[in-house]
From TrEMBL:
PROSITE patterns: AA_TRANSFER_CLASS_2 (PS00599)
Family: Belongs to the class-II pyridoxal-phosphate-dependent aminotransferase family. Histidinol-phosphate aminotransferase subfamily.
Protein name stated in the entry: Histidinol-phosphate aminotransferase
SUPFAM superfamilies: PLP-dependent transferases
PANTHER family named in the record: HISTIDINOL-PHOSPHATE AMINOTRANSFERASE, HISTIDINOL-PHOSPHATE AMINOTRANSFERASE 2
Quaternary state and interactors: Homodimer.
Cofactor(s) this protein requires: pyridoxal 5'-phosphate
Residue numbers bearing the N6-(pyridoxal phosphate)lysine modification: 210
Record gene name: hisC
């Protein structure tokens, strides 16, 4: 704390992401990165940017990337907004599309960045409890609110809300922006982008960090009605007219061009998730049904915090949340079959001990 900090800065409670240790030989299953590398075509496209042109500013509107996303999802490029990771897209939409002064509705177990943005912009975050099976209770999302946001599949539960549930929420809230955060949708979900032309209050966010193996490039986007997108553009341009650098734009465009690589990696992760879920269940874990690239699992007889710490000593890192209802769960990112086996071997040693 410095005496030069404003009261505003003193009041901020920043988000703490999962650790990114600089250690080698770790089985890193804690931050939902893709265990497979990006498409070789992405690497080639990024390399091709490494020349004298770096002295020039990037395209302010990232038009090529917007077009690539629009083509991929069958919308107009005026319906696409891009940002420095979906975290930045979220920051702008909390600021500009949610009505401050009214509570923003979200599930009580969801992405822990949402309350951080509410705190940043002075918005009340109203967390609505999940049901006994950790599912979103669609009927609770109504009444006066300044906006609604939830991940789908939810994080860190991994549980998917089918599109008819999303439509129910959209219909019950025609005067609020409803944001569906699809960071993990490519691992088995059905995208609500199919609904954007029917609901002017729907905004869908996605990221290239997970299914396209590009967490390091920081590219996320939103798709919705062109009016919502224009609002986001106004805000972005008031902070930084160049949200994405030349490397990120080129790499992201190339990622959308290599559909075969994308499908291969997603299918491998989905297969591994099913195998991992079954293997954890065999070892006594209760595993929530996941449509994401991670599983949330609880061992009825073992303390989750101690398990996470013991796994770490064996160089396997998973995520443990000290949060009501899930403090006895571990969130485990799906790795390669070898990484998952290393986790299971470490668990076997611990559970026998
Ligand atoms: N939404 C959810 C639900 C997430 O888990 C994450 C990743 N932690 C993000 C958004 C942000 O992803 P990124 O900024 O890497 O696009």
């Amino acid at each position: 704390m410095s005496r030069f900090w404003s009261p505003f800065v003193k009041g901020l409670v920043p988000y703490v992401p999962g650790e990114q240790p600089k250690l080698d030989n770790l089985v890193k299953l804690n931050t939902n990165e893709n265990p497979y590398g990006p498409s070789p075509k992405v690497i080639e496209a990024v390399r091709a940017q490494l020349d004298d042109s770096l002295r020039l500013y990037p395209a302010p509107n990232a038009d090529d990337l917007k077009q690539a996303i629009a083509d991929y999802h069958g919308v107009a490029s005026s319906q696409v907004f891009v940002g420095n990771g979906s975290d930045e897209v979220l920051a702008h939409l909390f600021n500009g599309l949610f009505q401050h002064g009214k509570p923003v509705l979200m599930p009580d177990i969801s992405y822990s960045f949402y309350p951080v943005y509410c705190n940043l912009y002075g918005i009340e975050a109203r967390a609505l409890p999940l049901d006994e099976n950790f599912r979103i209770r669609v009927e609770d999302y109504q009444g006066e609110n300044g906006g609604i946001i939830f991940p789908n599949p939810n994080a860190p539960t991994g549980i998917l809300l089918p599109l008819d549930g999303i439509e129910q929420i959209l219909k019950a809230n025609p005067d609020s922006v409803v944001v569906v955060d699809e960071a993990y949708v490519d691992f088995g979900g059905e995208s609500a982008i199919a609904l954007v032309d029917s609901y002017p209050n729907l905004l869908v966010t996605q990221t290239l960090s997970k299914s396209r193996s590009l967490a390091g490039l920081r590219v996320g986007f939103a798709v919705g009605h062109a009016d919502l997108i224009e609002g986001l553009e106004r805000i972005k341009n008031s902070f930084n007219s160049y949200p994405l650098d030349r490397l990120a734009i080129a790499g992201a465009v190339a990622a959308f061009e290599d559909q075969a690589w994308f499908e291969k990696c997603c299918n491998a992760v989905i297969d591994s998730r099913e195998q991992l879920s079954a293997a954890l269940a065999e070892r006594g874990f209760e595993v929530l049904p996941s449509a994401a690239n991670f599983v949330l699992a609880r061992h009825p007889e073992r303390d989750a915090g101690e398990l996470a710490a013991s796994l770490r000593e064996r160089r396997v890192i998973v995520r443990h949340f000290r949060q009501p209802r899930i403090e006895q769960h571990l969130r485990i990112t799906v790795g390669t079959p070898q990484q998952n086996q290393a986790l299971l071997d470490a668990l076997d040693a611990l559970l026998q001990g």
